[in-house]
């Protein structure tokens, strides 16, 4: 290689990095690599670093500021998934809901037996109907579980369920009588694993205090205690500093 | 420990230890440029945001970046580019692995370079200056290869230029850029 002009081997390595070597050039490159592996490797690295700098010449357009928070929430959820759930403290298993044949009975169970008015309202729009059907569909599966959530302050009357099946990709959170919150506040749902809170989603209720939220299904949602806290909406999505307003029943 | 003042390698070490704040810091450093590259290739802001999130989630989940193999910038750009081009080529027999420019022959360990010490704005200014000093033909060939994922023969057809000329332009352009950005790439 020492006999080759510098330009020749520089071009060979550039051709390797750009993947445009001819058969002849490949042979020459292989020979060069055998003779001076460290030198070639260093040049490959420099050229790759150079290519990776070219995007800095692109016009500066920024992603949505929300993307950072979304990323951190998604990463936390991934973490919750990979945590070895065998280490979660044993607890009494939740009741398995038997197969439910009647849509009305299903809705009544989810919202509570006194939810006649709520059921009426749910039937008023197509969107609500679709929601209802998805819940019914979930409830009709033999392997449906309900996790009950109750208000931490008995006076508030907030209650609801998390509906989970082993086959659906989504879990559904249904809450009612939750106090409305100002714009700068949100509710956040957490799974508590080994004393650590893992974010599972955030939401605000509609003006009637009702929440319908689809969440990506995670084992932590059925195996770990759940809690709902009230947080400033601008706080990091991993922040659980606010008051606990609901907890799952054990 | 205030991670935000640490080198990329140190922040990555914290990331590998499961510190999610390290992910936030790496996003602050590289989220913008990952998005810019994704947007250039995908030409769709939502798709570019989705890909940006995927790239960082991948970094968090797989924790497979090894500082000894090159800068984090290079790792993220290679990953973003290959995934973006794979997405726009998700159909057809032409699909091929786009991990080119990404396969490695091991280089030596890299200490923090001046690249890491430069702000995004400084990097942008330097790279823009360097790009403008390239002859138009070299810059165009490099951009078609890098952002559109075109092979040299595809570029040759598109520009109606002999293949040998396209190869020379791409190689000379890359070598010239390397020299112009020498202090950044070591």
Overview of the molecule:
The complex is a heterodimer of chains A (250) and B (186). In chain A, a hairpin with a 2-residue loop joins strand 4 (185-193) and strand 5. Chain A has helices at 6-17, 23-35, 37-53, 66-82, 103-111, 116-122, 126-139, 220-223; strands at residues 145-151, 159-164, 170-176, 185-193, 196-203, 211-216, 226-232, 244-248. Residues 81-102 and 111-120 of chain A have low confidence and may be disordered. Chain A is built from eight helices and eight strands, in the order H-H-H-H-H-H-H-E-E-E-E-E-E-H-E-E. Chain A is α+β, with helices and mostly antiparallel strands. Chain A has an eight-stranded antiparallel beta sheet. By secondary structure, chain B is mainly alpha-helical. Chain B folds into two domains: 1-112, Rna Polymerase Sigma Factor, Chain: A, CATH 1.10.1740.10; 116-186, Arc Repressor Mutant, subunit A (Orthogonal Bundle). In chain B, 68% of the residues lie in helices and 0% in strands. In chain B, helix 2 (20-42) crosses helix 4 (72-88) and helix 8 crosses helix 9. Chain B is globular, with a radius of gyration of 17 Å. At the A-B interface, helix 1, helix 3 and helix 4 of A face helix 2, helix 3, helix 4, helix 6 and helix 7 of B.
